Amino acid sequence: MALTHNLGFPRIGAKRELKFGLESYWKGQSTRDELEALGAHLRERHWGKQAQLDLVPVGDFSFYDQVLDMSFTLGNLPERVRGFQGDALDNYFRVARGRSAQSAEAHAGCCGGVAAGEMTKWFDTNYHYIVPEFAADTTFALDASRLVEQLREAREQGVAAKPVIIGPLTYLWLGKAKDDSNKLDLLARLLPVYARLLDTLADEGAEWVQIDEPVLVTELDADWRHAFNLAYHELKASKVKLLLATYFGTLQENLHLAANLPVAGVHVDAVRARDEVESLLNLLPASKVVSLGVIDGRNIWKTDLAAALDWLEPLHERLGDRLWLAPSCSLLHVPVDLDSEQRLEADVRSWLAFARQKLEELRVLAFALNFGRAAVQAELDANRAAIEARRASPRVHNPAVKAALQQLTAALGQRKSPYAVRATKQAAHLKLPKFPTTTIGSFPQTPDIRQARSQFKAGEIDAATYRAAMKAEIARSVREQEALGLDVLVHGEAERNDMVEYFGEQLDGYAFSQFGWVQSYGSRCVKPPILFGDISRPKAMTVEWSQYAQSLTDKPMKGMLTGPVTILNWSFVRDDQPRATTCWQLALAIREEVLDLEKAGVRVIQIDEAALREGLPLRRAQWQEYLDWAVTSFRITANGVEDETQIHTHMCYSEFNDIIASIADMDADVITIETSRSDMELLDAFDHFNYPNEIGPGVYDIHSPNIPDPQHMVDLMKKAAERIPAERLWVNPDCGLKTRQWNEVIPALTNMVDAARVLRAEV
Ligand code: GLN
Ligand code: ZN
């Protein structure tokens, strides 16, 4: 009998109950008991929805983050929060969120101000974890209470519990040594704690423990590979059976290692690494369980069950009871329940599966394997109908788009003249001063703006009233920018809810869920739009707004667009064609918008690629392929314009060392980036590369409400001028201002414009 299990269930709740519970607790509007009760309630509900599985994950629930949970379980708390007198859960939130000095006043004598733990992306997902902190003298001490309590809870509810923990190597790999010591040296101290944890779980009745080691799908050097062997040989003595879980990619050179570690079973991502399964089976000792992650845990499409069975049936024949079935990874990365959706069009809806539906697919697969396809014929027929309908749908396949893609040539991505020629023409045309000032696009999204938008969506005001309200906001931001004396203005993006959704809503090929939320970090969720079909642009998307804004001023007005790579990376995208193809379609659609803006007289156009870097594959060997199509997409979008039209791009991060050649290859006339917090050192990458075009290194951090000091900004720009010739520098903030208030924005930009004046006189 093939057995079914799950690696993790979304914890946030189908209606984001956990988010609201956490935020109410943090504001002091509910008690800790209420929050704990909510946690227990969600766990119970989620276990209930997984009851049909043979093994159900326990310990995947978290009040903030599973990596931070592990740090507490292992007793690895940052020094600054040790010895805290208050409640343990509050201390946990202190590490997760920090506590500012301001609120510390109210907490004088108890907790004091404390810095939040650093947050970073969980592999190639949009989930962010709290980075474990290490030093040479880090020690560990087991606190198994969370897992033990949840196991008991599960047992009382009759759940077939399989505790889930992060493995020792992945835990170390995810962390950061604050003193440049070698984190691997901590392994010897860490392993006894893991050994005790496993025994504790065994004593609590666990037969299997899922131990997650996703680092096995990344490039590991010899030390780390050796450490894997060492660690698992030491843990071999434990009383539980270990299921070593890998996911998000292929094992490649780690395949042999993973197959031979002394564990009772191995889980592999059979969506992204299906081609490796055969080799794994050949390497794997005949005693071991093989868990195949056959349902995509990273996307929202229905599985083609017949195709999955075609592949699985011979494997089942061969493996018998040793075969387990699961989603490819934890379902943390997909929304909870398609049944919540009331507004999706029937066809698109019939193509989708969220977490609950994916588990139902798993049940059907196992049933078909164990009892024959006929036992679930109705389910298989319904699945086949949906798969075929999607495959044949004219809403998915648009011949005109496919034909346009056939016509793609390198020339489409080529500016008419090289940068130096363009720069001269643009200078003559735009007549900007040295150190020109600009902003990144958005101005504050005020309560009035939000209210107008929600009234419009609810049908309480009509389109004309809504547009008039947005135009008034645009007029206001133009007035403010003129008064500030900025050189290149923006319209302020009042009419945009979100930089991806706004474009998705106007493109054919996109659908939007109501409750398709996925946890990004803590209580924060994102609702990625669903890109289901060939992408086309029925009509201009931004031209009217930009044209209106330009009509209010003699200064150049920047047209403002989101780039194809960012739209792709922040959406759920189709799985029936390569990502590159989808990206090129997006590129062609946004290119039309660029050309329409140009035609409408907009002479500076910014194309944001905030998410370009985060799309990098997990393995470096695959970086170049991604960068090639990503850069090509940007070039197709941007480079059809005349020499006089100035193309800007913006990226809100600053680690460019690895990708600087590709960034230069985008050939934007101006790039604005985040640099203020790094003292301009991040410009070194541009300097060493001899980056040829213009750069606006952000001079102040928009995440902080603090008003930046003019002299500090002057000093930063002087540092920038040591690396980049002054005539190629712009002065701007790190990112858009939508999360700030006008009373912060005005003084901050006043100081920034003053700083630019000083620079013009002094540099
Ligand atoms: N133009 C966008 C804004 O200013 C850019 C946002 C971003 O880079 N994340 O809001
Ligand atoms: Zn940004």
Description:
With 763 residues, the protein is α/β, with parallel strands linked by helices. The chain is 43% helix and 12% strand. It is built from 28 helices and 22 strands. The strands form 6 sheets. The protein has an 8-stranded parallel sheet. Strands 17-19-20-21-22 form a 5-stranded parallel sheet. Helix 23 (579-599) packs parallel to helix 24 (623-638) and helix 27 (710-723) crosses helix 28. The longest helix has 22 residues, at 463-484. It is globular, with a radius of gyration of 27 Å. The model has no long low-confidence stretch (mean pLDDT 96). The protein binds glutamine (GLN) and zinc ion (ZN). Zinc ion binds at residues 440, 610, 650, 652, 735-736. The site of glutamine has 13 residues, from loops.
